[in-house]
Amino acid sequence: xxxxxxxxxxxxxxxxxxxxxxxxxxxxxxxxxxxxxxxxxxxxxxxxxxxxxxxxxxxxxxxxxxxxxxxxxxxxxxxxxxxxxxxxxxxxxxxxxxxxxxxxxxxxxxxxxxxxxxxxxxxxxxxxxxxxxxxxxxxxxxxxxxxxxxxxxxxxxxxxxxxxxxxxxxxxxxxxxxxxxxxxxxxxxxxxxxxxxxxxxxxxxxxxxxxxxxxxxxxxxxxxxxxxxxxxxxxxxxxxxxxxxxxxxxx
Length: 251
What we know:
Layout (H helix, E strand, L loop, with lengths): L20 E4 L21 H11 L4 E4 L4 H8 L7 E4 L4 E4 L2 E3 L5 H17 L4 E4 L3 E5 L7 H15 L2 E5 L2 E5 L5 H9 L9 E5 L5 H9 L3 E5 L9 E3 L2 H12 L1
Parallel strand pairs: 1-2, 1-10, 2-3, 10-11, 11-12
Antiparallel strand pairs: 3-4, 4-5, 6-7, 7-9, 8-9
């Protein structure tokens, strides 16, 4: 997948056109990335803002995240059942009281988790995050571990059939059933989203597949955070700017 060159000329996103569907990444988009994935700070008003925005858009809002759906519920401290959510990089969906997900590759993920745990034991600046359909090896607290962590993940992927997913200071082995672009395309085929234009906000390399999908569907793609090579057409500086933009849409 080829990305556009880095540019500092991307403008903030325009207001939503009538009938648009809004897709929001979570980490780095709605909340600031924390050193540990279980330590993210959820703004007090975020859940109500999301529910209000979903109501304003007549259900045309979805979270699209690499976290599992269960992780999202746990972080908010409440079920987010009323929102459409694609979790685990497009592997699982919960929408309109339905939960759709494939069988979990238990043996492969447990083996990957053990090998990542062994690595983390010898590298104190790293930590392992076990998800429903993946296991991540974070090296944010010691970026020098990145190359070795990536080599380990590539080796384990060859042995297990799992897919390597690179992100910000993390490498993940996950079930290969899709990606965030797949998630957007699948939801855009269903009511009430079908027939409108998608708008996607994301910050990470994992969001590039969604940016490309949204662009192909004639929608709007928005990069959050520092400028880099990207498929995105527009830009916001931070999660705080995303929340301000959402509040403007609600006004």
